[in-house]
């Protein structure tokens, strides 16, 4: 699918963002790991959520979609600590889903993980997690820790595990979800520092809601999880997704806009940092209750931001920086190179084609903005990455000759209605083959 963005001066209106994919996948997981029936209300409608549902069904969970006066929900009958052996699991292009399910796969005597997305998820490394599971006595067959991989030897008894947190926090989250189901539990020491700490806090928040006891040091580098625990069947409500909201708010910031985004609660999502960052750039942003209101005259200034606080909003802020006065620097983002694509090199490649002044380093990205906008009139690639598609769309609003985004359907990984919501706010968007 192609998305054509025309030059847009102003946006206005109110939207309800998609539900958080990170909370949705975690709530679905703890519901499946419980014995009994759970409800997950307002689940995300996204490729990642669909991948988790599909894989959990393959592992033995019964999941039915229903609706009542409150809205859509999923009814889940879990498999507890005894998943069914499906032989193979295919998480599509959902890296976080894969890594969390590798933890569940450790409960089985044998399981194979594979994907059809060889150029995207197939290139992402999982060796640090596999090394940690090896310390528990499991064996793994893979090529350099990449898919396809076969895990053998479960379930383990538990014990002390050291895992690197230098490249991804998802390895740690996978171990945390597994730990309470093991007879001896798990003591986890994180080595090499820890990136994306807010997502670990989301994991801990969800586990505690599910009745699991976890002792965690404040720096999130040491954990003790007692064994023999059970996840409780219960009802969960999913919050709005701050990474998705950040893209809409950035689109509002680069135009003359007054927009509102609803269903955004105070929670552990690091991407709430979009609010102070956009304020620093010059937009007026207020967060009252569950509503974020943004007013902007389109005039922005450069900013410096530690992207490890909120990795999933960095590219949206990069887009805003492309239209800001001065230079913006996003640092401490080396783990962006290990996402659906290299989110440092690929954005730089596509933005440079538009005339954006970009500098990259091993773990940073610098943008010198052009407040008057760009000429555009070209086709740009998403490289199978939903965040790249959103970034390009935001810049496309300020391209005088518009911008055509190829493979724009990739936004469905996290925000299927992204282009529709931009259009509802007044952007000129055309979708076609």
Rg computed from alpha carbons, rounded to a whole number of angstroms: 21 Å
The fraction of residues assigned to DSSP E strands is 25-35%
Task: Assign an overall shape.
Answer: globular
Structural class: alpha/beta
Mean pLDDT rating: 96
How are strands sequenced across the largest beta sheet?
22-23-1-24
The profile of the biggest β sheet is: 4 strands, mixed
Terminal Cα separation, in Å? Answer: 5 Å
Number of strands: 24
Q: How many distinct helices?
A: 12
Residues in helices, as a percent range = 25-40%
Poorly predicted ranges = none
Q: What would the keywords be for this entry?
A:
alpha/beta, 4-stranded mixed sheet, about 25% strand, about 425 residues, 12 helices
Overall description:
- The protein has 433 residues and is of the alpha/beta class.
- It is 28% helix and 27% strand.
- The chain is built from twelve helices and 24 strands.
- It has helices at 21-32, 47-58, 95-105, 127-135, 170-178, 197-209, 242-253, 274-281, 314-322, 345-353, 386-396, 418-424; strands spanning 2-5, 10-15, 37-41, 62-68, 71-77, 88-89, 110-113, 139-143, 146-152, 159-165, 186-194, 215-216, 222-225, 235-237, 256-261, 284-288, 291-297, 304-306, 327-331, 357-360, 364-368, 379-380, 403-405, 429-432.
- The strands form six sheets. It has a four-stranded mixed sheet with strand order 22-23-1-24, with helices on one face.
- A hairpin with a 5-residue loop joins strand 12 and strand 13.
């Amino acid at each position: 699918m192609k998305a054509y963005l025309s030059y847009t001066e102003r946006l206005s209106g109110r939207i309800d963002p998609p539900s958080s994919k990170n909370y949705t996948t975690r709530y679905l997981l703890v519901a499946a790991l419980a014995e009994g029936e759970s409800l997950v209300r307002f689940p995300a409608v996204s490729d990642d959520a669909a991948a988790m549902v599909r894989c959990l069904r393959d592992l033995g969970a019964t999941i039915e979609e229903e609706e009542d006066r409150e809205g859509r929900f999923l009814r889940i009958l879990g498999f507890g600590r005894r998943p069914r052996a499906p032989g193979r699991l295919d998480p599509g292009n959902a890296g976080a889903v894969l890594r969390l399910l590798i933890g569940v796969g450790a409960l089985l005597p044998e399981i194979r993980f594979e994907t059809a997305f060889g150029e995207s998820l197939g290139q992402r490394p999982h060796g640090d997690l596999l090394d940690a599971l090896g310390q528990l006595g499991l064996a793994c067959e893979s090529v350099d820790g990449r898919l396809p991989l076969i895990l053998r030897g479960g379930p383990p008894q538990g014990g002390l595990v050291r895992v690197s947190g230098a490249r991804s926090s998802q390895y740690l989250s996978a171990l945390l979800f597994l730990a309470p189901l093991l007879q001896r539990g798990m003591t986890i020491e994180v080595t090499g520092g820890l990136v994306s700490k807010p997502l670990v806090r989301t994991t801990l928040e969800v586990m505690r809601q599910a009745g699991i006891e976890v002792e965690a040091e404040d720096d999130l580098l040491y954990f003790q999880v007692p064994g023999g625990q059970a996840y409780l069947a219960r009802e969960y409500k999913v919050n709005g997704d701050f990474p998705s909201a950040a893209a809409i708010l950035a689109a509002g910031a680069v135009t003359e806009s007054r927009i509102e985004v609803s269903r955004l609660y105070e929670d552990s999502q690091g991407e709430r940092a979009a609010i102070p960052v956009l304020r620093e750039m010059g937009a007026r942003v207020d967060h009252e209750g569950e509503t974020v209101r943004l007013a902007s005259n389109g005039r922005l200034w450069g900013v410096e931001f530690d992207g490890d606080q909120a990795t999933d909003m960095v590219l949206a802020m990069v887009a805003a920086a492309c239209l800001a006065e001065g230079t913006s620097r996003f640092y401490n983002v080396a783990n962006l190179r290990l996402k659906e694509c290299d989110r440092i090199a690929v954005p730089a490649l596509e933005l440079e084609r538009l005339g954006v002044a970009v500098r990259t380093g091993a773990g940073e990205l610098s943008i010198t903005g052009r407040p008057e906008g760009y000429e555009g009139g070209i086709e740009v690639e998403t490289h199978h990455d939903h965040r790249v598609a959103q970034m390009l769309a935001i810049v496309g609003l300020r391209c005088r000759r518009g911008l055509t985004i190829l493979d724009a359907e990739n936004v469905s990984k996290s925000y299927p209605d992204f282009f529709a919501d931009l259009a509802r706010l007044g952007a000129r968007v055309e979708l076609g083959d």
